[in-house]
Amino acid sequence: MTAGWTEDRVGALKKLWLEGQSASQIAKQLGGGVTRNAVIGKVHRLGLSGRAAPSQPARATFRPSRPRPTPQPTQAPSAPRRIEAAQPRIAVPVAPTPAPIPDLPGTATVMTLGAHMCKWPIGDPSSAEFSFCGRRASEGVYCVEHARVAYQPQVRKGGKDGASDLARSLRRYI
Fold this sequence. Notes:
With 174 residues, the chain is mainly alpha-helical. The protein has helices at residues 7-19, 23-30, 36-46, 144-150, 163-171, and strands spanning 121-122, 131-132. The protein has a two-stranded antiparallel ribbon. Strand 1 and strand 2 (131-132) form a beta hairpin. The radius of gyration is 37 Å and the shape is flat.
């Protein structure tokens, strides 16, 4: 067990803290099993907040400075440069884009379903005729029509006073 906080130790702690020493450095100087956390706890209990200067790291690290650009002497603007004629670019043939999928429900399969297509399932998944809606999805994974079906507003049950909700939530804890 460590020795308690004597008046001498508390005085030394206050002096070292106000000098800007770190908690680790103070713990080493006080010795006697005083840890960094003990120093931090005592500082908070004493209400010490201000320091003379922040503590400095024990070892200095070398950081090379960034090269600064040398200021260019101001000169009068030169004559405009000639722009050489651009070399003609060779046209690269572009792969033909696939034909757009008609906007009919049930035309998309798992293989043709894209990121912005409605993913509402149509039919039985175990049948060969199973497909997805495939229309343009509005803000989620479904088109406007299917989003109305999928996302129903929550209907409040019971009284408007909220007392029944409170009683129901309190029953969980009783």
